[in-house]
Design goal:
single chain, alpha/beta, Rossmann fold, two-stranded parallel sheet, 8 helices, 8 strands, globular, binds NADP nicotinamide-adenine-dinucleotide phosphate
Length: about 210
């Protein structure tokens, strides 16, 4: 599958590397440092391109930029009409300490209103990037860690679910895009557990229902 990565930092670079290792055709984009992007692409086995080129012909794109960069990257990406967009962005302020949107709306819903023709699906926003490589390495172990996925487009969620499984997570269906109002604050807790508590940042989670 051809995947465009819009924002090739901690999230985009790590997920793009894994998807390239799975055999996907990965196009990395959006940087202040084109030489770094070129090194990443060469190392990962993908290509370094412009945002417009990453979107063009992609079966799915990953949006992985700081909230403050959203308008800039969307301006470069265009309308994203009919494009499946995996959104992992948390609507954070400049200091990354507070949500700037919520809880009567959410970052995910704001993005969908900015690009209403895109097929939005939210995922990867509740797991620190440091978890991706260890989860990928343990892909054959059961049970797999969960990853919350939500959105209004069933087909987009199915495609995203495949990409989530490629990394080694089990997608956990969590409802519509509106769920973002509550998941985005939850993402702040996962960040606190990952970075603010002992034991290292490779945090994973799994929800279970007890029967009987
Ligand atoms: N990191 C995590 O573990 C984590 C977990 C859950 C959710 N998230 C969310 O995922 C999103 C991405 O996070 P991240 O940690 O991957 O961010 P990041 O490492 O800061 O990466 C951001 C990307 O945007 C590019 N960029 C930044 N400013 C730019 C500019 N002015 N012009 C062009 N490119 C620019 C960076 O390129 P260069 O640095 O190469 O210039 C980089 O490719 C955020 O919304 C965050 O809240 C992150």
């Amino acid at each position: 599958m051809r995947i465009g990565i819009l924002g090739s930092g901690l999230m985009g670079a790590k997920l793009g590397r894994i998807w390239a290792a799975c055999g996907h055709n990965v196009k990395f984009a959006y940087t202040r440092d084109p030489a770094k992007l070129a090194r990443l692409a060469q190392d990962a086995g993908g290509a370094a391109v412009s945002v417009a080129e990453a979107v063009d012909g992609a079966a799915a794109v990953l949006l992985a930029v700081h909230w403050s960069r959203i308008h800039d990257v969307l301006d470069q990406a265009g309308e994203l009409a009919a494009m499946i967009v995996l959104n992992c962005c948390v609507p954070l302020d400049e200091s990354n300490t507070d949500l700037v949107v919520g809880t009567s709306t959410s970052g995910a819903e704001e993005l969908a209103s900015l690009r209403p023709k895109a097929r939005w699906v939210s995922c990867f926003n509740t797991s620190p990037s440091e978890s991706f490589a260890p989860v990928f390495a343990r892909k054959d172990d059961a049970p797999r860690p969960h990853l919350l996925i939500y959105g209004d487009d069933a087909g987009a969620k199915e495609v995203a679910g495949g990409l989530i499984r490629d990394v080694g997570f089990e997608p956990l269906e969590a409802g519509s895009l509106r769920t973002a109002r509550f998941v985005e604050p939850f993402a702040m807790i996962t960040a606190e557990l990952a970075y603010g508590q002992p034991g290292g940042p490779a945090l994973i989670y799994r929800f279970e229902k007890l029967n009987g």
